[in-house]
Design brief:
Elements (H helix, E strand, L loop, with lengths): L1 H38 L4 H16 L4 H16 L5 H7 L2
Length: 93
Amino acid sequence: MLQAGLMNFMRNIGQSIGTSAVTTLIARRSQYHQSVLAEYTASARFHAAITGLATRLTQAGLSLQAAQHQALGRMYALVQPRPPLSLMSKFIG
């Protein structure tokens, strides 16, 4: 009985450590990939895309400030719904 209890305790500790390690790994890789994507915001293509989208939103009736804010939000949303890049880089390639 004592051995079974000790074995269950050790299994629970191992699962907790494993879960924490994987969660930390995914969070750190997500932060890394987020910073890599953030570097592209300085490119001319990114600024052209934001300007074009903000222009279309302004023509649809939004104020310039709201259109720029929404354009940035939409560009950010393009990258978010996909599976986290950290998962793909760790488990696929």
